[in-house]
Amino acid sequence: MHQTMPVRLGPAEETLIAQLESVGASAEADRMTVAGLPTRRVESYHYTDLKTLLKTVPPLAKVANEASAPALRVAGAYQLMIANGVVQAASTAPAGVIVGKAAGGVLTSRDDVLVHLNGALAKESLTLTLESSVDPVIQIDRRIEGEAAHAADAVKIFVADNGSAVILETFSGSDAAHVGNHATYLAVGKNAVVTHITVDLSSKATNHFASNEYSLAEGAKLRTVTIHAGAGLSRSQVFARFTGEGAHGDFTGLNLVEDGQHNDITIDIRHGVAHTTSQEMYKQIARGRSKAVFQGKIVVERDAQKVDAKMMMQGLMLSDEAEILSKPELEIYADDVVCGHGSTCGELDEDSMFYLMSRGIPKAEAETMLVRGFIEEVLDPIEDEALNEALTGIVDGWLQGK
Amino acid sequence: MTTPILEIRNLHARIEDREILKGVNLIIPPGEVHAVMGRNGSGKSTLSYVLAGKEDYEITEGEVLLDGENLLEMDPAERAAAGLFLAFQYPIEIPGVATMTFLKAAMNAQRKARGEAEMSTPDFMRAVKSAGTELNVDTDMLKRPLNVGFSGGEKKRAEVLQMALLQPKMCILDETDSGLDIDALQVVSKGVNPLRAANRSMLVITHYQRLLNHIVPDVVHVFSDGRIVESGDKDLALQLEAKGYADFDGAAA
Ligand SMILES: Nc1ncnc2c1ncn2[C@@H]1O[C@H](COP(=O)(O)OP(=O)(O)OP(=O)(O)O)[C@@H](O)[C@H]1O
Ligand SMILES: [Mg+2]
Description:
Order of helices and strands of chain A: HHHEEEHEEEEEEEEEEEEEEEEHHH
Helix content of chain B: 25-40%
Structural class of chain A: alpha/beta
Oligomer: heterodimer
Strand order of the largest sheet of chain A: 2-1-5-7-9-11-13-15-17-19
Strand order of the largest sheet of chain B: 6-9-10-3-11-12
Number of domains of chain A: 2
Bound molecules: adenosine-5'-triphosphate, magnesium ion
Structural class of chain B: alpha/beta
Radius of gyration of chain A: 21 Å
Number of helices of chain A: 7
Number of strands of chain A: 19
Shape of chain B: globular
CATH class of chain B: Alpha Beta
Radius of gyration of chain B: 18 Å
Distance between the termini of chain B: 40 Å
CATH topology of chain B: Rossmann fold
Number of strands of chain B: 12
Distance between the termini of chain A: 55 Å
Number of helices of chain B: 9
Largest sheet of chain A: 10 strands, mixed
Largest interface: A-B, 22 and 29 residues
Largest sheet of chain B: 6 strands, mixed
């Protein structure tokens, strides 16, 4: 038997341990002491070695007393806000929406450091119960304000049977070296139809971590869109579980990564029952010296016959120094299923660029047109016009280096 | 003497180690239509790409002036804004870009570069509609992504439609007639001929004398092995058709 050597802890880990102890999470503190932050040797963090990438962790967030301008305005949206981990008072909710607050975190425990940290550090969660079809887009503005802070926050959403909703979460805040650890749990009821969009718009100095857990009941239809267009270091995790037959999930995302950034989207989709289908479509665009990571895992459990799941990653390199990594994984325990995955990676097509420019369209505009075409599949299904426009605007802004 | 619309002097261009243009000299005065004919692989499309500014080629010698301006210093978009238009031999399909979005972007980009105001959407729609009717281009086709799924002939008509909308001063048509049926040939010439104007010139690359019955050239050039080897009036095209290239470029057919 080998004695496990205690890992050497860095300043980020020391701070995390002290923070966990200060909130009485001694079990989590012990776990961090023994294991430290995950390195590349931990399979699910192979491309995102947190031990190396996360050098320091700022103090736990205090109540925010200033707020920067909303990161994204969507006409007609119903706005909710969480600032520095604290759920803010909300205006009167639209019909069918019950807004509340609960103590503690929202995610199902699993072997993942970000999930553990959020569970230990999120003091309260914003709860949303959507009883029927909700008309306006619901926007949850999650931000970290003031000096560099480590903030954990949580949201729990129930969409009732036959309900429908479009939920947008934006992440932003002051320009400081924050560590944001965000969690969302979303349960989609029977035959409910839900679109859930998360957009990271934090400053480049920020480290953004988000874990989204979904459960899909019988006949549910879920579309998720994960967009990274902000933080220098980010990782968004999508954990989805199909619990009822006939459910369908479209899991999509845009990983926009620029010079000096490392952004990671990691998904884990579990088909636990038969006759469920999913399509995963992720697009990564990288420019400058940067790293874009997509890890996609689809698990089909033993009794989940007739599952149909197709995963696709497409990468677009806008510079030679950019790196686009993709790791697809299929774990299939049922025998009568259709599953597949593919990935492509390339540059903007030179002939297309020349054709557009030969008609007088300047280089930057031609690039934007082609990139818009590249990401169309992800944004097109978003039917709300104001929302679609706002998201297109984010991508255009990113392209123009804003 | 008036400034020629296009003036090419001793133009040499290579791709990788291979020289393809070997000293092209050509002057096209305002209002003239010049035809270029020549064997497959003689470098006609290369000349058109080099003029439009495609990156793959290295210009080793020579100069090109568009209405007196140094063309070779400009990027492809600047050349277009300066008034150059190339109707591609093989128009590119671009799946993610809607044809209408593209047309509007092109028209407005050129207007902007010339310091003119953007076109309003209704004005734009009117312009497209009338040009479309003229060229038998179904406006439904324009709702599709750019050139995607267009037949060979449809692509060529779409090129002429773009040309009609952009009103360039120098039009280069690279085998716009190939792949066209007889009716379409007439439609395309009907699109091109009204564009003939005192301040606009054309360079028409073709393999078929037939096109030149519709678009009657002022001068015909024979292109061979990277340069112009013979020039004459429109009857030169008839002689070429009758005798073949061997009499003109000395190479065996
Ligand atoms: N990218 C390239 N790499 C290498 N050679 C090339 C490339 N593009 C063109 N060539 C060569 O340059 C020569 C001229 O080609 P070009 O297309 O200009 O001929 P063309 O006169 O237009 O012929 P056609 O009548 O068949 O259209 C050909 O031999 C061709 O193979
Ligand atoms: Mg050719």
